[in-house]
Automatic annotation (TrEMBL):
<dbReference type="InterPro" id="IPR046848">
    <property type="entry name" value="E_motif"/>
</dbReference>
<feature type="repeat" description="PPR">
    <location>
        <begin position="246"/>
        <end position="280"/>
    </location>
</feature>
<feature type="repeat" description="PPR">
    <location>
        <begin position="348"/>
        <end position="382"/>
    </location>
</feature>
<feature type="repeat" description="PPR">
    <location>
        <begin position="83"/>
        <end position="117"/>
    </location>
</feature>
<dbReference type="Pfam" id="PF13041">
    <property type="entry name" value="PPR_2"/>
</dbReference>
<dbReference type="InterPro" id="IPR046960">
    <property type="entry name" value="PPR_At4g14850-like_plant"/>
</dbReference>
<dbReference type="InterPro" id="IPR011990">
    <property type="entry name" value="TPR-like_helical_dom_sf"/>
</dbReference>
<protein>
    <recommendedName>
        <fullName>Pentatricopeptide repeat-containing protein</fullName>
    </recommendedName>
</protein>
<dbReference type="GO" id="GO:0009451">
    <property type="term" value="P:RNA modification"/>
</dbReference>
<dbReference type="InterPro" id="IPR002885">
    <property type="entry name" value="PPR_rpt"/>
</dbReference>
<dbReference type="Pfam" id="PF01535">
    <property type="entry name" value="PPR"/>
</dbReference>
<keyword id="KW-0677">Repeat</keyword>
<dbReference type="GO" id="GO:0003723">
    <property type="term" value="F:RNA binding"/>
</dbReference>
<dbReference type="Pfam" id="PF20431">
    <property type="entry name" value="E_motif"/>
</dbReference>
<feature type="repeat" description="PPR">
    <location>
        <begin position="184"/>
        <end position="214"/>
    </location>
</feature>
<feature type="repeat" description="PPR">
    <location>
        <begin position="317"/>
        <end position="347"/>
    </location>
</feature>
<feature type="repeat" description="PPR">
    <location>
        <begin position="215"/>
        <end position="245"/>
    </location>
</feature>
Amino acid sequence: MFNCGVMIRKKITDKSSNLHQQSPLRRNCTNIKTLKQIHASMIVDGFDSNPSALRELIYASAISIPSAINYAHQLFAQITRPDLFTWNTMIRGSAQSPNPITAVSLFTQMEKRHVRPDNCTFPFVLKACTKLSWVKTGCAVHGKVVKFGFEWNSFGRNALIYFHANCGDIRVASELFDGSEKDDVVAWSALTAGYARRGELGVARKLFNEMPVKDLVSWNVMITGYAKRGEMESARELFDEVPKRDVVTWNVMIAGYVFSGEHERALEMFEEMRRVGEQPDEVTMLSLLCACADSGALDIGEKIHCSLLEMHSGGLSILLGNALIDMYAKCGSIQKALEVFRGMREKDVSTWNSIIGGLAFHGHSEESIRLFEEMRRLKIRPNEITFVEVLVACSHAGEVKQGHRYFNLMRDEYNIAPNIKHCGCMVDMLGRAGKLEEAFEFIDTMEIQPNAIVWRTLLGASRVHGNVELGRRANERLLGMRNDQSGDYVLLSNIYASQGVWDGVETVRKLMDDSGVRKEVGGSLIETNYVGSTPLFGDRDEYVVGLVRPPVAFVVTAPR
DNA sequence: ATAGGGTTAG
């Protein structure tokens, strides 16, 4: 703490230093606790009104510590006349925060106060518009770029290419690109990224091949394009070819494998990354925790947790905390999830969502609902995800009245319109409670269009309660949606079978045969044993995975 | 400046 304080003073008195360089504060202040300590020592030493000191502090909280953006806003509000660099820092930090709207409103404020933007301002504002998919706002900002004469500046133009390529009009992006210098690698990469994000990988690849110059980002753009579409073979080919790799290159590959469900590959990538000496960062660890959560690899998750505690002795970030809660909950260790939750000094909505969802998923409905109430007492605003989880909790607990109460609360008090998942939860809740007619009524009167899942939920509930008539009606609606999921037929077949209506079973079977629907054989994966050791986590090398045969009762429903 | 991660019904 005191070292950091000394560093600020050194920084402030060093007149020759370039403001845009990495200052010690920016490099060393990596968590909100250290940040607050530095701020406190600044106040004690009378540095809190020093403009350069404040600027450094704002940079650290807005850019270096992603979860400290609100702190940055508080600091920013104390400055009477922020300079352009500080405005840009705030817009940049807000654009990369989970709430990019603030970046747009900062830009508006900046205009009202007659602060003239520079070429650095627009890339950040347009990034926010892109993240929000605010096409109209982005186009209005395009007008400002022209107004301030940055259309012919490579920063301004590339920011426009980025915006139009990703969410505006790709033809506009293309035209702007044609006006670029032939060897502007940022323009090439921005356009390529846009085509890749739209799924036009062929066009993206053509551009990539045609680039007169490529840098590391160009390669990362193309690899990302493949990885996000699940084309991991192509991603791998480029990864093997790339002349230089950085932490992003590795992260893209790891996240791609996790996305494609190839968790073993993801872990192999990570091991390889460590072997060649690339330092993993927070994004790496988040992907790995996601892999553990998806595959139920509790022991690896625990080891990641341990190494995280060693790496970040000053406390884990909110994002890592949330990922740990989710991992522990999904791997069945709800106690550890609660421990992480209680140990977090800073929490956000996702933190609460992770634990409320985890508890609901594990059948601890009362505890889940209790925490939701605690959240409301603490005036933390639940979002639509929170309500999905709370409704799951009510559904599993059989709390029909409470569920209805929360469903109404969502709109009346929090102004959140129910989405298809909320409605799905309500149907599930009513269905489980045996209120099948009420569930049917709910679907028919709800404001949004029901989807197949909703009808399938009712169909499943009809099976549980042995209601052939409602099952038939639900199935009629379901099949009317022209989908070919074998589970729908199987469920209906099960309803008939459970009631001994054998000709009904036969009819459904015939329907399945005629439409060419096939029921896949069910199965589950569990860890049964492991052998050997890994250089990373100590004693683990490979899993022997056992395939558990489906239960015998299932055979009744499987096709010939 | 352009590239990377995140919780949600059955």
